[in-house]
Amino acid sequence: MLQRELTRDQANQVGEQILAQIEGHIIERGYHYFSDGVVFNTRVEKGTILLSDVQGSAVYHVALDLDAVQNSTCSCPYSRLCKHIAATFFQMYSVFENPRHFLARAQKPRRVQFSKAMLTPAYKNGSQLIAGSEAHAVQSSLTATSTVRDWWAFFESWTRNLSAAMETYRASTELFSSYQNVLGVAASWPSDRAQLFAIHANLFHLLTLQEFVKKYRQSFWYLDLTQTAERLLEQLEASLYYADLAGLRQNHAEAVKETLLIVKRMKSDDSSSLYWSFAYHMMWWYLLHDQSWVLDETSELDQLIHNPETKANEKERYLLLRALFYVMEHNDEAALRIWLPNRQLTLSFYLTYLKSFARENDWPRFLFWMEWLEQLVGQAETGQYRLVTAIWLEAMEQTEQLTESGAMLKRFLPNSFHEYATYLYENKRYKQWIDLHMSYQVPLSDITAAQAKEIEDSVPALLFPLYLREVNRLINERNRPAYKEAIKLLKKVRSAYSKANEEARFERYVDQLSAKYNRLRAFQEELRRGNLNL
Fold first, then answer.
1. CA-based, 20 to 30 A from 231: which of 98, 351, 389, 527?
2. pTM for this structure?
3. Under DSSP, is residue 196 helix (H, G, I), strand (E, B) or coil?
4. 8-21 vs 99-106: helix crossing angle, rounded to 10
């Protein structure tokens, strides 16, 4: 059916958009969904919209825009182009082309194009989460006029058996199910009040998770719970980002003040986990930045930090929190000097601020932070690296520094290896290109014949280190097939030495090689057969 309604050209054009706009790991997960056969009811609407249903943790409804993939939608909680959209694409693509070949392209290093959607949270807003949880709503006497104190009392009552269930069953599933179900309490409330309720439900379950991990720190759930904490934080950011914060402060002032008191108590938590600190930062950054509140909180933190009775680990925690207010004061350097020595703070910790600067088009400030964070960028996990560098390139373009971006990629090694290598090669900086490949132990097989020929035609001697390293590697495999491959490569090396007018140097090298491995009979035989044992 799709073959009659769509064309191969359409499939290929959509594929190019998918490659440019969706991260590789999401495309890969979409491929697995497609391979598992969970994409169904696929049909074309108006010639340019591909509809489908995808079975995940629920059945999600996808609308893939064939003309503009960035406008595609899915009913899942993820706010960006998701694995269900990718799976729907593979369902279409498989009619015309081999999806495995497309997956192989997606898995190769590539640069993600910048779009404004990158600056939004990964998950949808609190209202959408609440609407999605209505079917699983729990019974409650709470109303839209209930106080924040009433909310937390209800959370305590609702989750009184949660810790036992988490211990007995899969902890992350039990916790997240509790969080999603309790959102349904506010399904019929006014949206702004419901959004604030969602924020508190998130904070409560994050605290519950933290207490559970503290108690069962050595349990086999720990990694799984870490991922759950990160997802809760991502959804907290989404709830705060999409909420009508000005309206909350104006129309629900009392509830926001109660929220302030809860957040202020966060700084006294004695957990070694950083997740509670991350939540504290988000609450102040988005919701609580009233000037008088900020001044009061920073004064309290400063007193705690300088109190001689404050323990060293407590002082470190207070400094971690205090640094946020330096950022709010635009004293970024002071904040970064506190945060960067803390090795627990990965690039993900800084994304809230980096994306905020980009949303405000404060590109100089964004670039200032990137200079400080260059080592973390170079070591970040692939998805975060691609996100940040896509925004960074946009910042370089907006500040008319794009011509300098190639050389600056060196700062983001090792993550930027492929982009930096491409920059060096395209600018014919072959010496640096070879040095880079040698430093990162790149196998000769990863260098194309065209690249080798171009460098050999330009400066043949540059290739000697790569060739000779590979020859030694093959010889050290200690088997005849590897010796034969070494001889083939030595013949190429002889040609390169000849182009460089260094035949005598090559002969000396072969003599030394023969002497070094004189006890390897099979290798000596292959040398003679190749007419290289001079």
1. 389
2. 0.82
3. helix
4. 20
